[in-house]
Structures are given as C-alpha cells and as structure tokens.
Amino acid sequence: MDAKMNYENPLFYENRELSWIKFDHRVLEEAKDKSIPLLERLKFVSITSSNLDEFFMVRVASLKDMVHANYKKKDIAGMTATEQLVAINQATRELVNSQYQTFNRSLMPLLNKEGIYLVNEYEELNEEQAAFVDRYFMEQVYPVLTPMAVDASRPFPLIRNKSLNIAVLLQSKKEKEETVFATVQVPSVLPRLVQIPGTEAGQVCFILLEQIIERNIQKLYSNYKVLCAYPYRIMRNADLTIDEDEASDLLKEIQNKLKMRQWGEVIRLEVEDKMDKRILRFLRTELKVAEEDIFHINGPIDLTVLMKMYGIDGFDHLRYSSYVPQRVPEIEPGSNIFDAIREGDIFLHHPYETFDPVVDFIRQAAKDKDVLAIKQTLYRVSGNSPIISSLAEAAENGKQVTVLVELKARFDEEHNIVWAKKLEKAGCHVIYGLVGLKTHSKIALVVRKEEDGIRRYVHLGTGNYNDSTAKLYTDCGIFTCKDSIGEDATAAFNMLSGYSEPLSWNELILAPYWLRDKFLSFIKRETKNAKEGKEARIIAKMNSLCDPGIIAALYEASAAGVKIDLIVRGICCLKVGIPEVSENITVRSIVGNFLEHSRIFYFYNNGQTEIYMGSADWMPRNLDRRVEIIFPLLEEDIKAKAYHILDIELQDTVKARILGADGQYARVDKRGKTIINSQDIFCEEAREAVPKPVHIAGGERVFIPAEPVE
Prior knowledge:
- The protein is of the alpha/beta class.
- The protein folds into 4 domains: 1-120 and 303-317, Up-down Bundle (Methane Monooxygenase Hydroxylase, Chain G, domain 1), CATH 1.20.58.310; 125-298, polyphosphate kinase like (2-Layer Sandwich), CATH 3.30.1840; 337-504, Endonuclease, Chain A (2-Layer Sandwich); 510-704, Endonuclease, Chain A (2-Layer Sandwich).
- Strands 14, 18, 19, 20, 21, 23, 24, 25, 26 and 27 form a 10-stranded mixed β-sheet that branches. Strands 10, 11, 12, 13, 15, 16, 17 and 22 form an 8-stranded mixed β-sheet that branches. It has a 6-stranded mixed β-sheet with strand order 2-4-3-7-8-9, sandwiched between helices.
- β5 (193-196) and β6 form a beta hairpin.
- 35% of the residues lie in helices and 23% in strands.
C-alpha cells in the first residue's frame, strides 16, 4: 500500500446532493414493492414528494445562492455549485418521472380495483357527482376564494411558497382580441381531497379541490370568457440566513426571517404538462423562473396530498396493522421511575418500546417534592407536547427549570418560538441556543434531593423529545444516575447557559469541541491495531455520512485491514470497492415502515469493546457547527443490546439496500439466505421481551434466549 495515498482524491467521493436523490429513490422503491400493502405504497409516494420539497427549499436554494455569489469552490467530489445544479436537475427529473409513472400506471389502477377512485378530469363526473361538486363549490369554496386579475392597474400578486394556484387565461367579452391573465390561490384552509358520491355501492371517490375550482372558474370572472385554466405551484428559497452577531434579539430576528421565507427567490415551478404556452410564458416572466427550473407534471401537482388518502376508513386490509410500542421491561407502568433507574442503567429502543418513560421522567419530576431542578434541551417537539406541559408545571411548582429551545431548528422555528414563550410565561429559564451553533443534543437532567444526598438522573438519546415522531422514528436512549454522567450533564448545561467550560470531563463527548478528534482517534486506534495484526472492527449506524475527514480516516483504516460495516440511511459520500482504499468497507441503507434515525458507533478496541450513541451524524455540520452529545454505553448488558441492533440490521435481507462499487444501491440477493426484516424482528422481540445478552466475545454476539415478559 502506497503510504502517500491521497485519500482526499475527489474521485473517491460521491456528491452529497446526488447521494440524497438516490435516497429518495430508495423511498420510492417502497412504493413499487408489490409485497407492501397498497395504501402503504401510496404513503411512500407522498413521502417522496415531501422529501423533495424540503430538498429544493434548502439544498438547491443554497447552491443557487452560491452561484449568485460567484462561489467557485468545488465540493468533496470535485463539482462546482453550477455543475451540481445541472446534475441535480437531471437526476430530479428522472426521480419525478419515476414517481408519477408509479402513481399513474401502478398504484391508481390497483386502487381502482379496490374501489378507490381519484377523478382525473372533472369532465369524467356523472350527473350526480357534478351536481354535488357544483353545490360544494358554491357553499364551501366560493366564499373563500380571492380571484385576481393582472392588468395595468393590478400587478401580478405575490405567490406564497408551496401554495397551489390556478392560472387562468381570460378573454374580454367587450374587446374580443384582448386577453387577460388571472390567478387564484387554491385555499389551504379547505381540504384538498374532497370525497364525492361513488358511481356504485362500495366505491369511494375523491376529487381534488383545484379541479372543483377549475370546473367552476367561470363563476369567478363573469365579465370575461375563460379560455383555459391550469394549476401551478412554486417553490421558494427557504434557507434562512441569520447574522446572529448582529441580531440584538434572536427571537425577533428569526420571526422576521420567517416572514421573508414566503417570498424568497423562486427555485422551482411545477405546472400541469398540458398548460397553455401563453400562460407558461407569462408565469416564467412574472416569477423570473429559468426554463430549467420548470417541471411539467403528468398528474396531480404536489403528491403530498396522497397522505390524506392513506387514512381513509374501511380499507384496513390495504394498510399494515398498527404496531403498539411495548413497555420497557425494567420500568413497571405507574411505578416510580427514579427507583427503577437506581437499579441500573436502562436502555430504550423506540418505537419498538414505548416513549412513555421519557414523558413520565419529566412528568414525575415536575410533581416530585424531592426534585430540585430540571434541565432539558428541546430541538423539535410535538404539536401538543406533554413534555412542555410538564416543564411548565414544574416551574409553577417552584422547581428550577432551565430549557434550551433551539429556535434555529429548520421548519420548526415558528413552532419553537410558541413553546419558548409559553415556558417563559410559566417561569422557566429559557435559553435560545448558542451564537453561531445549533443545539442538536438530546439530554434531560433531573436533580433530586435524597436521603444520601443530591442525586442526578439523566436521559440521553439519539432522537428528539417528540412523543409523536417517537412512534415513527427508530431511536435509542438510556436512563442513568451514574455520578460520572450526572457531573458531565451539569457541566454541559452550565456551558450552554453560562459559557463555563470545565477543565475535564468524565464520559460525555461534545461537539463542536472535541467530538471530531475523538471519533478520529477511535478510527485511528482500529487502524493501528490492524497494522499490528490485531483484530480490528468498526460498525457505525447513522443518518448521513459526508464528512471528508472522517471518510478519509475510514479509507485509511480500510486500507490497513480494518473491517468496517456502515449502516447509513440517507446521504453517503463514501464510495465502496475502490481498490486498496475501500475494499474492506460495506455500506447499507435500511428503508422501511419506520424511519431509521438512531446513531450507534461500535469500535472493537482489541476486545475491549466501546459503543457510543448520540445525536450526531458524521457530517461537518454535526461535528463543527452544532452542539452535539455522544455518550458511551458503560454496562455490558446495555452494550450488548446496542450491538444486537447493529448485528440484526447487518443481516437484514428485506429492507436493506447494499451500496455497490458502481455507486448504485441494490436489494440483497436472498437466494440461500434467511429472510430477515430487521424492523419486524425488533417489533417481535419487544413483544416477547428483549433478548438477554451475556457478553460480546471476539466481535461475535452471545445471547440467552428471551423469556416473555409477564
């Protein structure tokens, strides 16, 4: 092996944005999978659209900003911002075409066979349906609409980000040669999916709100003849740029920026593929959209609406039966959670195990007379968060409550401002994050006065304190009252609230301070062991991998003989199968019914296994620009449970896709292999009780068979 190998060679790296589009393709693959219930497949089409919207508003918008600023620096794959935009455009069009082919040619015919119909054209309505639609328009829709004409005295209106609109071409009844452009917003306050009478018993029929408006558009412009009308939708730059050093009040600054998000540069225009060229020309001019940013859509614009169809009544056989998260074996429902934690560290695996203990941890602390203080970080919480209510109650009960609410959590800024104000009103001390950094760590600390003195109870996790997404995202966490971690938790909050940084830490590893160096040291330790002929192994599970320093270290480790298995749900800029560079690295992505979200890092360490979990992915933003916490698993039974998760996911033959040397992801060849769906296995294990691990020897797992929980 050449000691001077340049592991930073751009040829060794995948572009981050193109890798993300491959991830959205994997989501779309679930919609194409005939083994999945039909409405579940429909749901994945909707998720693909939702993902793509956010991708454009943030990532594509950011690249366009770079082009406008004449930023020439290349990414780790050697591409300029302009080159990336060209490649993204082509890849996105392929994705959208595949999405609509799946919807139009596969899913809709199958839905029709089941008696579920979505009207393609309002002309298809029978007499009864037409009468229903017209009555619905006059009674429910007409009073809400604001038709807008564009002429010399009425300029083109500001079109809101992500809003669905209908463009209309009108002809004056007085001046026959004169044509006028008009637009009307499809009101978001009304359901976009409207159920109408079926043509026969047992049928469920829907029509889209924009089609109801199109059918009745003439009623909005009585002095004109409507020549044609077509829906369109725009996507604007929603990437907030906040100068925190100049902002005297971060709360007000973010509130002002949120208003601007609605009117950012138009970066994408979606139009119905049959749109009249005169209307399209007009929209292009008024919205200042380049030709390459126009997407001609063969079907309903914005397929996120399909999520509304997913939950229709009477078709349970077309959905998975809902999984009920199981109780955590160590915690008896209704018992004192602090007593349970004192018995030993407790491992949590959501959504297989319920998130209730985390909610109860704060709820009980709020009411417990012996609790002196509660400190917690909040990044994203649910709409009606019980944790927020408990924190407010704790403050009202006279406890010292400190909450760091991260206002810069993208697309949750407005949400978090509301919670922050509520907590302040209740008497909590609210911190709005650190200047220049997002606080992404997941930590809660409860300080309790007990007979033998002050004891600190800590929850650490990989996911947000959101009781809603905890039913949908796979995450891990621990409860502990170990002194070493309690001391670190106190130090972390003191650092967040008062700029004090202790000279030494016990267990927790924080970004942006020393997490990068720690991860690199762990990887280099395995590299050193491999070079010395010792067994060396790394397993890492995360959402995204795109940090060039980490990837280069993994390449060097692989070249030294370290066996590296990566489980990366989304973006992966590392390439496998490069001779003498990444031949010892495997990458797999698991896309299933639950969103893979946990981060687990395993290092063999010459038999002294170390396993860490936490909030950080291997991305520059997590390592350098966010406050993140990675924590060690200190008890052998806890370590073995985390290893078990990694082990089962590495054996997955159903939901795993394996990254090949060609840069493409392929499903596992099941021939001769046991059929293993890791998410199904974790559901079953949670029902029966988690396997009781004994120890990890030589990188292999050893387990005692599980006994059912009574």
